[in-house]
Design a protein that fits this description.
The protein is built from 6 helices and no strands. The chain is mostly helical.
């Protein structure tokens, strides 16, 4: 339950950060328009105090643009750091298996779940992934991790064959 809560919280934070990044440019444009309107009304219509110089207006405009750009870049970068596609895909896969387990505990037909796993080639896909990971670790010189993953790949292949066999 805690894993799903943290997953949900992470997804919410990432969604809010991406929305902030997407809205930074339009909000910057609104802020610039508002600045121009305030200066025009204050200097042109109301004539209150000293007029805003072109240099002051440009400095304020550049400051607003800079804040908008920094906000956009920080929001998008933070969202990318928090939410990698690999972690999202792995979390989604884990959630599917969690739901299948809950279904089984709640009385689902075990033969149907087993057939679904076999027909979806879950075991072979997972063993292929671990084999690829082992090869990549081997290329980087991390032989211990590569060997562990090779052993896991062999076990996953055995499990895939056992799942696919129908025993009645």
């Amino acid at each position: 339950m805690d894993h799903r809560l943290s997953q949900k919280t992470r997804r919410t934070v990432v969604r809010k950060l991406r929305t902030t990044g997407d809205l930074a440019a339009p909000l910057t444009a609104v802020a610039l328009f508002t600045l121009a309107a305030v200066v025009a009304i204050d200097d042109g219509i109301l004539h209150r105090g000293p007029q805003t110089s072109l240099m002051d207006f440009m400095l304020r405009s550049f400051a607003i643009c800079g804040i908008g750009i920094v906000l956009q870049k920080v929001a998008i970068f933070s969202a990318d750091v928090i939410d990698t596609a690999e972690s999202e895909a792995a979390a989604d896969a884990a959630l599917v298996f969690h739901h299948l387990r809950e279904d089984l505990i709640n009385g689902a037909d075990p033969d149907r779940i087993r057939e679904a796993l076999a027909s979806a080639n879950v075991g072979s896909a997972f063993s292929a992934l671990t084999a690829d990971l082992a090869a990549l670790y081997s290329l980087t010189g991390d032989d211990d991790s590569a060997e562990e993953l090779r052993k896991a790949t062999a076990k996953l292949r055995d499990a895939d064959q056992d799942i696919a066999l129908r025993r009645y």
